[in-house]
Design goal:
Elements (H helix, E strand, L loop, with lengths): L6 E6 L8 E4 L2 E2 L2 E5 L2 E6 L8 E9 L5 E2 L3 E5 L11
Antiparallel strand pairs: 1-5, 2-3, 2-6, 4-5, 6-7, 6-8
């Protein structure tokens, strides 16, 4: 949801290695290697400030790697609560 704080994100896939790095709209993010099929990263609040989408890719240095196809991470509009006085 837009305007939320930092969000921990799990990235499932295959062929990950310790040097694999998550990128958000092309910018590297601090990535934790969990296994050959899982990485985690934190999407900072600044990345989630406005509704829209962030493109998430995984990049592994050239030797035996490359960059994955992008996957859209949807950022939904925040819910606006109103109160009526009767």
């Amino acid at each position: 949801v837009s305007g939320s704080g930092d969000v921990a994100v799990i990235v499932d896939g295959s062929g990950f290695v310790r040097r694999s790095q998550v990128r958000w709209n092309g910018a590297p993010r601090s990535t934790q290697f969990v296994s050959a099929t899982r990485l985690t990263f934190v999407a900072p609040a600044a990345d989630l400030a406005a509704p829209g989408a962030g493109l998430v890719t995984v990049s592994t240095s050239p030797v035996g790697g490359g960059t994955s196809k992008p996957l859209a991470f949807t950022i939904s509009p925040g819910i606006v609560l109103t109160r009526a006085l009767i």
